[in-house]
Amino acid sequence: MTVTPSARAVSQYATTSGNLTARIALHDHGTNPQGWFAWLDERLPLSGDVLEVGAGTGRLWSQVDHRGRGLRLTLTDFSAAMCARLREVPGARVERCDATRLPFADASFDTVIANHMLYHLDEPAAALRELARVLRPGGRLAAAVNGRDHLAELDAIGPAIGRPDLVIGLHQNDVTAETAPARVAACFTDVTVERYPCDLEIPTAAPVLDYLASMAEDPLSAAQEAAARDLVQARIDAEGAYRVRKHSVLITATRGPRG
């Protein structure tokens, strides 16, 4: 049975923030000394009323000083578990909602952020139209997505241990670094793309195993876990680390004047 991207997101995130936390932790082993969130902090077009859609655990706002900048921050997620985490972000308004049906009036925000979430949607075009709707004319969109080769070395582990269901792309739509700019251009102007320069060098097998466990709807068997550990450890022994390619981009764009 085919599982839609949104159904997969519900099963992964609706009742727990643990799966997302495990995946974020893997990226602590990045080769760029400037982490993803700090890199975003220098590039996000932040001003005035800011909305982050699909904000997850709110990790971005531990790096970005929204209160010091005088931003009026609104955070949304479809998941009750994530919204509970988001309510820990000081000074933020939190709404639980669907990204394709935002409970905000037209032209409510100066900036809208969609950080690594568009590929979880069944109707990404509808979500982009909603993001454009709630932006003021001249308002700015910032959306992060991944390339088709993102984390390819992690994707290779699942099939190798008899778990092809662990391949990331099987559970996502076709919004990637390669396709997203054109999709964004259908609703916005001045579209720009910048790639985050970073890969992963993971020194031990444990973070990789935690990542695989976070991806699995059914737990890995003892034999599958052992096979994964052996595969990863063999690469670490040979190369000093388990190296994984990353391919993440930040797309920014402007909401044009309304007709």
UniProtKB/TrEMBL annotation:
<dbReference type="Pfam" id="PF08241">
    <property type="entry name" value="Methyltransf_11"/>
</dbReference>
<dbReference type="InterPro" id="IPR013216">
    <property type="entry name" value="Methyltransf_11"/>
</dbReference>
<dbReference type="InterPro" id="IPR050508">
    <property type="entry name" value="Methyltransf_Superfamily"/>
</dbReference>
<keyword id="KW-0489">Methyltransferase</keyword>
<dbReference type="GO" id="GO:0032259">
    <property type="term" value="P:methylation"/>
</dbReference>
<dbReference type="InterPro" id="IPR029063">
    <property type="entry name" value="SAM-dependent_MTases_sf"/>
</dbReference>
<protein>
    <submittedName>
        <fullName>Class I SAM-dependent methyltransferase</fullName>
        <ecNumber>2.1.-.-</ecNumber>
    </submittedName>
</protein>
<feature type="domain" description="Methyltransferase type 11">
    <location>
        <begin position="51"/>
        <end position="142"/>
    </location>
</feature>
<keyword id="KW-0808">Transferase</keyword>
<dbReference type="GO" id="GO:0008168">
    <property type="term" value="F:methyltransferase activity"/>
</dbReference>
